[in-house]
Write a structure and sequence with these properties.
seven-stranded mixed β-sheet, mainly beta, single chain
Length: 118
């Protein structure tokens, strides 16, 4: 059974930090590219950051560049998102996603809420 379980969300003040984790099971994690996406209330889901299967390359949305860092530990089947200098506009539900383009496979987690507010 494929599972992606996010954790680490919560309420944080502007300027604060959070570290999200996503633990994968039920598939060969090390073959999949991983991404974090977020969805703000009333908005479409948007890409935050992505990382290749071996972790050799990362990509970020412009508004997150320099503040967020995506990383992975294939030995722990886990992808992380370190979020620093958080802003109220970073509020939303953060989802992790696994992609294996060669097999047209995509898996989603259930999301974790991040709220940035004073």
């Amino acid at each position: 059974q494929v599972q992606l379980v996010e954790s680490g969300g919560g309420l944080v003040q502007p300027g604060g930090s959070l570290r999200l984790s996503c633990v994968a099971s039920g598939f060969t994690f090390g073959l999949f590219a991983m991404s974090w996406l977020r969805q703000a209330p009333g908005e479409e889901r948007e890409l935050v950051a992505s990382i290749t299967a071996r972790g050799t390359s990362t990509d970020y949305a412009d508004s997150m560049l320099g503040r967020f860092t995506i990383s992975r530990d294939n030995g722990k089947n886990t992808v992380y998102l370190q979020m620093n200098s958080l802003k109220p506009e970073d509020t939303g539900v953060y989802f992790c996603k696994a992609d294996l383009a060669s097999e047209s496979l995509t898996y989603w987690g259930q999301g974790t809420q991040v709220t940035v507010s004073s």
